[in-house]
Amino acid sequence: MKTTLKIILLIILFFNLGNVLAQDVKVHGVFIQDSLIVGDQVNFYLSAKYPKSKVIFFPDSTWQLGKFEFVKKQYFPTQTINGISTDSAIYTITSFEIDSIQTLRLPVYQINTFDSTFFYSETDSIFLTELVNTPLPDTLQAQNLPLKTNTTYQPVSWLLNYPFITFIVCLLILTAVFMWVFFGKKITNRYTLKRLNRLHEEFVKQFIQLENELKLNFSSATAELLITHWKKYLENLDKKPYTRLTVKELSLIQSNETLIQHLRSFDAAVYGHRTEVQEDTHYLKEYAELTFQEKLKAFKNEK
User: Fold this and answer.
1) Whole-angstrom Cα distance, residue 179 to residue 187?
2) What one-character-per-residue DSSP string does 28-51 give?
3) Are 98 and 70 in contact (CB under 8 A)?
4) Is the CB of residue 78 less than 8 Å from the CB of residue 87?
5) Residue 40, C-beta contacts closer than 8 angstroms, at least 6 positions apart
6) pLDDT tens-place string over residues 158-186
7) Residues 207, 229: contact at Cβ < 8 Å?
8) DSSP 3-state helix, strand, coil percentages of the chain (rounded to 5)?
9) Long-range contacts, stretch 16-25, CB < 8 angstroms, 24+ apart
10) Rounded to whole angstroms, how far apart are CA atoms 115 and 18?
11) Cα–Cα distance between 229 and 208 in angstroms, integer?
12) 218 alpha carbon, distance to own chain's centre
């Protein structure tokens, strides 16, 4: 018997505790106008008094207003007197319902650790002003309907769903970070490998074109274009200053004596001392191909 009495007392205390907490926050809501016309805008005033130690939030544009639609919200700064804070806002709303009496109540809420506590205002009502008072017969042609025409443009505020856009942006950022952390190296390696192959294909294509021109009609200018093209490609591939050094200077940093001999022979052709360069061009092309393959092998080993 005593156990049952204790349980009943605990239940009563639980429900009374909610009432005590609710008494700390006083919410008042009322329509500023007495009546409305379908499609017109009316204002709903909402205020809340609460201890300044609390943090109270008002509904925003995403809040469901029942039969009403949100237009805009005007918020007033918080006023605190003797430890009691007062917040207030005016909600401009509209309705396209035809109920003769329409009601609304709005809450304010406090965010807790695991949930939110809502404090609702009293329910207020507003009357619908009817523009057509004459009842219509069941069957009437459209052109004979006693309709009232209003073609005046009604500006509507553009609403931007900031929480949704923020969520999408954060999701995209997190997805990008995830992709970079787990697949960034693979993507970078694939791009580098594709770039190396593309540059080599372009080099070989232009080298063969210049080589064929030399075979058909030798000229020092064409020979100079070919050796410059070769040096630029090798400089980018082998990371050695081929374009900025003479053959003599290259021999100090290049241990391949055969390469140095072919470069000297090609220089003689550029300066007009000889015209037979097929053996030289063939070797330079093979050397570039070999350097490219070594570069690919080293890159794949790094992965």
Assistant:
1) 9
2) EEEESSSEE-TT-EEEEEEEEEEE
3) no
4) yes
5) 94
6) 777 888 899 999 999 998 888 888 777 77
7) yes
8) 50, 20, 30
9) 21/117, 22/119, 24/50, 24/51, 24/54, 25/49, 25/50, 25/54, 25/56, 25/108, 25/110, 25/119
10) 14
11) 11
12) 58
For residue 88, the tally of other CB atoms under 10 A from its CB is: 17
Domain ranges within the chain, ordered by starting residue = 25-132, 185-302
The whole-angstrom distance between residue 285's C-alpha and the CA centroid of its chain comes to 48
Q: What is the DSSP letter of 246?
A: -
Torsion sign over Cα 217, 223, 225, 229: positive
Q: Is the domain defined by 25-132 classed in CATH 3.40.50.300?
A: no
Beta strands at 84-95 and 68-81: parallel, antiparallel or unpaired: antiparallel
Can you tell me the distance from the alpha carbon of 196 to that of 233, in angstroms, rounded to the nearest whole number?
11
Alpha carbon separation from 88 to 30, 32, 37, 53, 267 (Å, rounded)? 12, 13, 25, 17, 88
What confidence tens digit (pLDDT) does each residue in 248-271 have?
888 888 888 999 898 888 888 888
46 by Cβ neighbours in 10 Å (0-12 / 13-18 / 19+) ranks as buried
Taking the mean position of all CA atoms in its chain, how far away is CA 27? Answer: 38
**Whole-model pTM?**
0.41
